[in-house]
Structures are given as structure tokens and as C-alpha cells.
Design brief:
Elements lengths: L1 H22 L22 E4 L8 E3 L4 E6 L5 E5 L6 E4 L4 E6 L5 E6 L7 E6 L1
Parallel strand pairs: 1-3, 2-8
Antiparallel strand pairs: 3-6, 4-5, 4-7, 7-8
Bound molecules: copper (II) ion.
Length: about 120
């Protein structure tokens, strides 16, 4: 009798746990496993760091959310040269991060705090 009761309790707890996981929001998956470059989302602004370079200059709308992908094994940052317009760490080996572009139109040079020779420019307009 006691054993059966305990078993029922365990089953109930398991059911609760499964239900909790299902309804609770997990962390949002940035772009899923096995990402192929350029398929983040149609029209979504993105910077892909590769070989210690930020790639082509990017122009975005004011306040746009920019996704940064780091294909290098080393970690990088996207840090605005002036003020604190934006500053994100991007883990290496395919790590991603997002930041919100400034709302004021203009040209925003940025760099990597780990590798000061890395430079890029974000244009907002
Ligand atoms: Cu870097």
C-alpha cells in the first residue's frame, strides 16, 4: 500500500515537472543549430565576425536590433568608439549576441576591446 502511494506521488511530480517545462519559456534560441551564414532572418541586420574582421559596413534603421555572429575561435566585442552607444561581448566559435542600434542617425565607428586593431562602422539612418 505504502509503496503504491509513493509511486503515485513520484508520477505526479514527474507530470508536474514536464508540464512546468512545457509552459515555461526557455531561453530564445538565436538561430538554431547548424547555422548557415546569412540565414538569420530575412532583412534582419547582422554582423558576422570572421578572421578578426567585422565584414562589410552595415546600415540599419534607428533602434534596429543587430545580431552579431562570431565565427572566430577567439571572443570579440562590438564596442562603440565613442560614448556607450553599444557594447556587446560575442563568444567565439559561432557565438551570437544582439544589441540595439542607436536611435540617432549617424555614423558609429566601433572596435573590439580585445583586439584594438579590429574596426567597423555602423551607420544609422
Ligand atoms: Cu576581438
Amino acid at each position: 500500500m505504502r509503496a503504491i502511494k509513493a509511486e503515485a506521488a513520484v508520477l505526479l511530480m514527474a507530470a508536474l515537472l514536464v508540464g512546468g517545462c512545457g509552459s515555461g519559456g526557455g531561453s530564445p534560441a538565436p538561430s538554431g543549430p547548424g547555422t548557415t551564414s546569412g540565414t538569420v532572418a530575412a532583412g534582419a541586420p547582422a554582423i558576422t565576425i570572421k578572421d578578426f574582421e567585422y565584414g562589410a559596413p552595415l546600415t540599419v534603421a534607428p533602434g534596429a536590433v543587430v545580431t552579431v555572429t562570431n565565427m572566430d575561435s577567439a571572443g570579440h566585442t562590438v564596442t562603440a568608439d565613442q560614448g556607450q552607444a553599444f557594447d556587446v561581448d560575442v563568444r567565439g566559435s559561432g557565438g551570437t549576441a544582439t544589441f540595439t542600434a542607436p536611435t540617432a542617425p549617424g555614423s558609429y565607428p566601433y572596435h573590439c576591446t580585445f583586439h584594438p586593431n579590429m574596426h567597423g562602422t555602423l551607420t544609422v539612418k
